[in-house]
Amino acid sequence: MVGLQPGDLISQLPDQPVGGVFLAGHTTRGADELSTGIATLQRSVTRSAGVPAQVAVDQEGGYVQSLAGPDFPAIPTAVAQGEESSSDLADGTSDWAKRLVDAGITLDLAPVADVVPAGTAEENPPIGAQDRQYGSSPSAVAEAVVTVIRSMLGVKLGTTVKHFPGLGRVRANTDTSADAVDAQTSASDPALQPFRAAIAAHTTAVMISSATYPQLDPDHIAAFSAAIVTDLLRQKLHFDGLVISDDLGGAVAVSSFSPGQRAVDFVRAGGDMVLTVQVADIAPMTAALASLAARDKTFRARVDNAALHVLASKQSVGLLSCG
After folding, report:
1. Count: domains in the chain
2. Is this prediction's pTM over 0.85?
3. For 261, what's the count of Cα atoms within 13 Å in the CB-facing half-sphere?
4. How far is CA 291 from CA 138, 145, 244, 260, 286, in A?
5. Mean pLDDT along residues 127-149
6. Are 57 and 66 in contact (CB under 8 A)?
7. Regarding beta strands 217-221 and 212-213, do their DSSP bridges make them parallel or antiparallel, or are they unpaired?
8. Which domain does 266 fall in, by range?
9. I want to staple 306 with a disulfide (CB 3.0 to 4.6 A). Which of 71, 208, 270, 272 is the partner?
10. Which residues pair with 213 in a beta bridge?
11. DSSP code, position 231
């Protein structure tokens, strides 16, 4: 999945076929203009890749709302959404999610399932300091996350619960630091409750964080950890949907790895769709995956499995039909 700036999407596409496009940044374009551009994009992607792309945005609310044009009213912060009644949250989510679908968006990179402990928000740059959390207890976050997921899925908008296994306790942002560490989260941690609830609610996708979790895997960031992606998420929590990386392009957390190595390490760990905001990364990432798959039967089977998860996610939002 490659990040493109809203506008002339076709001119930004890499030469290599892509499985998804992420509308990066913020735009005040209206729904008709976006819909026209996305329809043109889908025709181009379908010609090159054989199937349409997942078209994603970051539309959480508050500080994180990619689409802010006249057809996309301001969405409250997650903190404010978490204080709403379940019925009000469901109605509000259904309304703005339907607006995304009407504009051609198929996947929202939301909701946030991270639990920020009470009184620590300002010490948590990626989530708490931006009011991106639905509450300060696992149960409150889980309840809101399930409501949001069900509302989005109800209008055929795919969902991406994030940032597994949680960014609510870190003291650094993986976008700007390689030192984001959560020394507390374990496989039995109560803070995993919102992710369990999201899986039970049939979230389309789970996004993996790029922080480090020593109790789960002291040697790898989550995105490159089979212990976290395969053993914990796939096997223990029984998630069989789409696993997406957090940004593996511009994030400082992965800057010590080459683009090709980032893609290989993520897929090898159990991931399905690599997300990068750097269009130039697509060529080396694709080449590295293809090269290793050609030499390694086990890795080739893992790539095939990842492709099936991507296709299943597209089918779930109406991009593909059976038969």
Report:
1. 1
2. yes
3. 5
4. 42, 39, 21, 10, 8
5. 98
6. yes
7. antiparallel
8. 2-316
9. 272
10. 217
11. I
